[in-house]
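Exercise: predict the fold of this chain.
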Amino acid sequence: MTPLYSVAEIRGIEQAAAASLPAGSLMQRAGLAAAAAALDMAGNGSVLLLAGPGNNGGDALETAANLSQAGVEVAVLHLPGEGTISAETAHALARARASAARFVDALPAHGEWALVVDGLFGIGLARPLAGAARALALAINDWDCPVLALDVPSGLDADSGAVIGPDGVAIEATRTITFIGDKPGLHTFAGRDVAGDILVASLGIDTALVPASSAHLGSAQPFASRLTARRHNSHKGSFGDVAILGGAAGMAGAPVLAARSALFAGAGRVFVAAIDPGAAFDSAHPEIMFRAAAGFAGTDSTLVAGPGMGDSAAAIRVLVKALDSMAPLVLDADALNLVAASLDLQGHLAQRQAATVLTPHPLEAARLLGVTTAVIQGDRLAAAREMAARFQAVVVLKGSGSVIADPDGAAVINPTGNPGLATGGTGDVLAGLCGALLAQGWTAWEAALGAVWMHGAAADLLVAQGVGPVGLTAGELAPAIRTVFNQLIRQYARQRS
């Protein structure tokens, strides 16, 4: 998996590398890498570079000099700022001014440019874009011109993926070339909307200076060992039972969606253990068995608690029994809200010895941690890690760039999925999928990574087939998950052969 580095980690790597290099080497290398990326995007077209006052602006100025030297028509809009610039940036400014690049004082007409390069502010930005920088960002976002962002789109927090400031703005890039190492904020929350395609330029830094990272960009590799063909000598007991605990009055659809997902993800047998009497038969999938939750033993089942569960006394009793069991457990939806509202249930959860996965969306996560949704979204990695440590469980913080975290602090940002998942019921499908993987013997970490990956990949497959993202429904996901799962099994079987 691709490692992701915080701003503090990148600063440490940068300082260690700079200590053994001639002054300005890293900025010069960044300028060369950015110029190559710009030429790839713009071809022979003209390029407008926005250069801010700091070292990100220095990268842009180096890029301008290199592009000009390559024969590209270049214009530079430089915002010098009021502070003293670094020696490296001063050298880059002198190079750009000595080149054929044309310096301009105002934003030229947008029709002139094949590419805009955003070098206003990089990873060091700590306040919202304001004044001329904000005006530039808003204007560029209205253009239909491709944009290459240097290191991080200006206005975006490289750690969290949040646009800086409550009324902040960030430049919306077509592609981001990010330096030294990849950053988490480019892959989660607003980062997925403004960063575009990500290109990592390591700048030739000695790998011995690059520490191991506790955060990574997800892939199928961590659960690849589970992607094996089934033996002919198998039976339904080989693949585990999944029981969905939910279905209060008026909410029978949620557990059915979760149950169908578990069925299509290969669980041997699937039950719906309903809180209230309701449907006892799924006409579309009669393979699903229905029971009353109050009398359901479920001792040999993997449990998925929460879809349509409600908050009745009966629901609480069922949840306590699930928390105190030794069964693998997925907690979603109403189960998470019940836990959030009860210190006693939180204690039961934290003391569990069996595999446990929590799948909150940001509002449920806010309730679990006693904060606001804005706090959760302001640092999604930190929130997921805090929940995992507090409740001693693997946590999936859902959203754009879902974050998976374990109690030891490891975190993965999932790259699959699209806006088609922003509709009711898709979380129930994810919970059922995760339960099915647990039932088939996957660890909690593997099940969470695999479920989130395949859930998003199924939505991507549907969109590629012309289904959505607008109007994609949760019920369409389960068959697509089955397709993705089997494709992965065949892919990894070929790689092993």
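Check your answer against the key: The chain is about 40% helix and 15% strand.
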